[in-house]
Design goal:
The chain has 378 residues and is α/β, with parallel strands linked by helices. It folds into 2 domains: 237 residues, 3-Layer(aba) Sandwich (Aspartate Aminotransferase, domain 2), CATH 3.40.640; 131 residues, Aspartate Aminotransferase, domain 1, CATH 3.90.1150. The chain is 33% helix and 15% strand. The protein has 11 helices and 12 strands. A 7-stranded mixed β-sheet has the order 1-7-6-5-4-2-3, sandwiched between helices. The chain has a 5-stranded mixed β-sheet with strand order 8-9-12-11-10. Strand 4, helix 5 and strand 5 form a beta-alpha-beta unit. The longest helix is centred in the C-terminal third of the chain and has 19 residues. The termini are far apart. The structure holds pyridoxal-5'-phosphate. The site of pyridoxal-5'-phosphate has 15 residues, from helix 3.
């Protein structure tokens, strides 16, 4: 079945008790048992909940995975996956990894004896040379946040496996609609469902999927043991949004990236859909389309900070992936925690999360903010 059909039907059979067509919100912590240990597959909602099962089943199917595990946040998923490692193990991460992941690895796990190395995107072409027998895990984002670097997933999976490590892909920016890392050899795919999969900026959530039965069994065990589980209402919010693939964001982003790259007030545009982007060919091969995220360099840090406060439709806020367009300065906002990291966002970088409003209205909004910033600067 195609993606759109699975998004609407997988894990969402009409409720057996009532026939309800929409997945019910099973707002319950516990379940009655007929006799000791005799229940219908549910005994306590940290362990399992039918609304969560619906979300896990549907999202796993969209990622071409055998197993899906939902979490209370993207970082809840990340910290649970990090528990696949033991102190002394080494992991190699893309240098411009999400700031919150870097904060976790550097300030939570490194002091406990875990070893992390951060590899710039350009060095992934000879990834194998950077892996040793202590390396258990390779962690990439593609496209990455906020530089929109693109990594060849299949090549990274081959190099990781040759070294006896697993490959984890944070697929938050792409979504399974555009890119399915497990089909390209990745072992685990992880999401902040707070972003495109939640789609409306109204929920915090996370998700991991795998087709490896050993990893899946461990992740289910860790999900109930560590307890970073989402509530039924949050699961329901994500299930209902999955029915609408994030298509329009990318269509709008194409037009906006092209227009920005011709704007004299813009120094440089980072968008994998532009033929000038160094990762364009790889992205074209492994993605259906290029997504809704764009970054660009303003003429100066002052211009960047002024510009983001002047747009009206693009709301000044952290996060991404909603129906509404957002704008921010990563070095001051989402990536402030990486200021002294191996990767630091350029001070004059502006990041856009392009929404599904009229593209002409969005362009007018950006262009008039850029013109006015030039006027005030002059
Ligand atoms: C937001 C984000 C996360 C963290 O997710 P939360 O839901 O905020 O915990 C992880 N990775 C990427 C790429 C993100 O954008």
């Amino acid at each position: 079945m195609d993606f759109e059909t699975r998004a609407i039907h997988e894990g969402q059979e009409p409720d057996p008790a009532t026939g309800a067509v929409t997945v019910p919100i099973y707002q319950t912590s516990t379940y009655v048992q007929d006799a000791v240990g005799e229940h219908k597959g549910y005994d306590y909602s940290r362990v399992a909940n039918p609304t969560r099962t619906a979300l896990q089943t549907c999202l796993a199917s969209l990622e071409s995975a055998e197993h899906g595990v939902a979490f209370s946040s993207g970082l809840g998923a990340v910290t649970t996956i990090m528990h696949l490692l033991n102190p002394g193990d080494r992991a190699v991460l893309i240098a411009d990894v999400y700031g919150g992941v870097y904060r976790m690895t550097s300030q939570v796990y490194e002091p406990k004896g875990y070893v992390f190395d951060y590899l710039p995107a350009a060095d992934f072409s000879n990834l194998g040379e950077h892996l040793d027998e202590r390396t258990r895990l390779v962690w990439i984002e593609t496209p990455s946040n906020p530089m929109l670097n693109v990594i060849d997933i299949r090549a990274a999976a081959d190099a990781a496996h040759a070294a006896g490590a697993i490959l984890v892909v944070d697929n938050t920016f792409a979504t399974p609609f555009l890119q399915r890392p497990l089909e390209l050899g990745a072992d685990i795919v992880v999401h902040s469902t707070t972003k495109y999969l939640g789609g409306h900026s109204d929920v915090i959530g996370g998700f991991a999927a795998t087709s490896d039965p050993t990893i899946a069994e461990r992740l289910y065990f860790l999900q109930k043991s560590l307890g970073a589980v989402p509530g039924p209402f949050d699961c329901w919010l994500v299930v209902r949004v999955l029915a609408v693939p994030p298509r329009r964001h990318g269509e709008n982003a194409h037009v906006i990236a092209a227009r920005l790259s011709r704007n004299p007030r813009v120094e440089k545009v980072f968008y994998p859909g532009l033929p000038t982007h160094p990762g364009h060919e790889i992205a074209a091969r492994q993605m259906r389309d290029f997504g809704g995220m764009i970054s660009f360099l303003a003429e100066s840090e002052e211009e960047a900070v002024g510009l983001v406060a002047r747009t009206k439709l693009f709301k000044l806020a952290e996060s991404l992936g909603g129906v509404e367009s957002l704008i921010e300065v990563p070095a001051r906002m989402t990536h402030a925690s990486t200021a002294d990291a191996p990767f630091a966002a350029p001070r004059n970088l502006v990041r856009l999360s392009v929404g599904i409003e009229s593209v002409e209205d969005l362009i007018t909004d950006l262009e008039s903010a850029l013109v006015r910033s030039a006027t005030t600067a002059g």
